[in-house]
Design brief:
The structure is a single chain. This protein has a domain of 126 residues. 55% of the residues lie in helices and 15% in strands. The protein has six helices and three strands. β2 and β3 form a beta hairpin.
């Protein structure tokens, strides 16, 4: 009977060449699955960075439009004369050359006319304080001259990267409108 048990045990062994554990194919499949997961996470990270940059640009644009409106509310003569409108149009035509050009009179420590203050305000916001990519500023009023009771609009547009997988830039814009007092 002992011989009979030994024979049964020898049949329970795996055939020669077959072993327990992972084979090369199983390891390669698991590496491919792992890499697909890593690529998916990298794509999500890239989208998160893009969304963060877009959010930063949008908040900077909101700040810029609000700051411009506050400066125009203080300098109503510059708004009535149209200096804010023309200077913003000139600056938006080519921001890098406008900012590299002559700097308007510094009006913080010096006395300035309303038009000098308007030119300084636009230059200060477009060249020194803006962190928006290729910004374009349009200041408009519902009537000329822009008197009390007229609607003032400040439109700021900028470029941002397009959606996932695109190399093209997308144009974003923001418009702030208020009733002049």
């Amino acid at each position: 009977m002992e011989g009979h048990l030994k024979a049964r045990k020898s049949h329970a062994k795996l055939p020669k060449g077959k072993e327990d554990g992972f084979g090369l194919i199983e390891v390669l499949i698991s590496v491919v699955i792992f890499m697909v997961g890593i690529l998916g996470m990298a794509g999500m990270q890239a989208q998160a960075v893009r969304a963060t940059q877009d959010s930063l640009q949008r908040s900077q644009a909101i700040w810029l439009a609000n700051e411009m409106s506050e400066r125009m509310k203080v300098n109503v003569q510059g708004l009535e004369s149209g200096k804010y409108q023309t200077t913003a149009q000139t600056a938006s035509g080519n921001v890098p050359s406008y900012c590299a050009g002559s700097v308007p009179r510094q009006c913080i420590a010096n006395a300035c006319t309303a038009d000098e203050m308007a030119a300084y305000d636009v230059h200060d916001l477009m060249c020194r304080n803006a962190r928006v990519s290729n910004q374009q500023l349009v200041v408009s009023c519902s009537a000329t001259p822009c008197n009390s009771g007229e609607t003032v609009s400040i439109t700021l547009s900028w470029e941002t990267r397009g959606g996932i997988g695109t190399l093209f830039l997308a144009q974003k814009s923001l418009t702030l409108t208020y009733l002049r007092q």
